[in-house]
Design brief:
Elements: E1 8-17, E2 20-30, E3 35-39, H1 46-53, E4 61-66, E5 69-70, H2 76-82, E6 84-86, H3 99-104, H4 113-126, H5 142-154, E7 160-164, H6 172-189, E8 192-196, H7 200-206, E9 209-214, E10 217-222, H8 224-228, H9 231-238
Parallel strand pairs: 3-8, 3-9, 6-7, 7-8
Antiparallel strand pairs: 1-2, 1-4, 4-5, 9-10
Helix pairs in contact: 4-5
The structure holds adenosine-5'-triphosphate (ATP) and magnesium ion.
Adenosine-5'-triphosphate binds next to helix 1.
Length: about 240
């Protein structure tokens, strides 16, 4: 059974690829309005966990609950309609379409083309990019692409957004802009975020709680201050046993 306080949770979630167990008996609980960091070395299973959560791949065993519902029989587009979405680690926009057309694709599942266009402008405004609405997506800089991807995600009317390394390759200023934006979206719209990020300053400043995984298993969980001095975390990141 799901804990009624959690908006999203997993129970013994496991995924194997052949002989390799990539997500291993994971129990994770996310409460509404939290910003939770998910960290771990390359290949730890973070993206695979997100893919399981949104239904892009199926668990080998274990369960996922969203707002108390078992997601087992819900396809990705149905989970998206329920309010559970993820951004992609490698942002994939339609490069021959304009920014606004890219953003409105996120809204089409729920509204007419006319409404979607208005809603897309609203969300583009939220990420501070309404001035480039008509620019071709193929001509965008990397940070602009990341923000357009976020605006497109907002167009799905999400409750929980899973962000997979949206800050990779951004400079400090661009990163601060996204960090502010995420906090603002949580504070003003009550959105819940789970954030995969290798950049420790971003994670430490943004998240109230951090979950650390290594070889698909949770090895630590707690406040940024707790995680920062956790011996197993330090060992996993430094790549040797302490
Ligand atoms: N479809 C697949 N088939 C086989 N192995 C896979 C598949 N997808 C992922 N893996 C393997 O699962 C492991 C975890 O990959 P995953 O992409 O989840 O890691 P990650 O924690 O997101 O890493 P990174 O920080 O580099 O993005 C890796 O060893 C990867 O090669
Ligand atoms: Mg990944």
């Amino acid at each position: 059974m799901a804990n009624t306080q959690d908006i999203l949770s997993t129970k013994s979630l496991t995924r194997r690829f052949g002989g390799l167990t990539v997500v291993n008996e994971l129990d994770i609980c996310i409460q509404p309005g939290e910003i939770v960091g998910l960290i771990g070395p390359n290949g730890a299973g973070k993206t695979t966990l997100f893919n399981l959560l949104v239904g892009l791949i199926k668990p080998s065993s274990g369960e996922i609950y969203f707002e108390g519902k078992n997601l087992r029989n819900f396809a990705t587009h149905e989970r998206c309609k329920m309010g559970l979405v993820k951004t992609f680690q490698n942002v994939a926009l339609f490069s021959d379409m304009s920014v606004i057309e890219n953003v409105l694709t996120g809204a089409l599942q729920k509204m007419s083309l006319h409404q979607a266009r208005e809603f897309a402008y609203e969300n583009l405004e939220k990420v501070g990019l309404s001035h480039i609405a008509l620019k071709s997506a193929g001509d965008l800089t990397f940070p602009e692409k990341a923000l357009v991807e976020l605006a497109r995600t907002l167009c799905t009317c999400p409750k929980v957004i899973l962000l997979d390394e949206v800050m990779a390759a951004l400079n400090e200023l661009e990163m601060d802009h996204i960090l502010d934006l995420i906090q603002k979206l949580r504070n003003t719209e009550g959105l819940t975020f789970v954030v995969i990020e290798h950049h420790m300053r971003a994670i430490m400043n943004l998240c109230e709680r951090i979950v650390v995984i290594n070889f698909g298993k949770k090895i630590a969980e707690g406040t940024p201050a707790f995680i920062n001095q956790h011996p197993e975390v330090v060992a996993a990141y430094l790549g040797h046993d302490s």
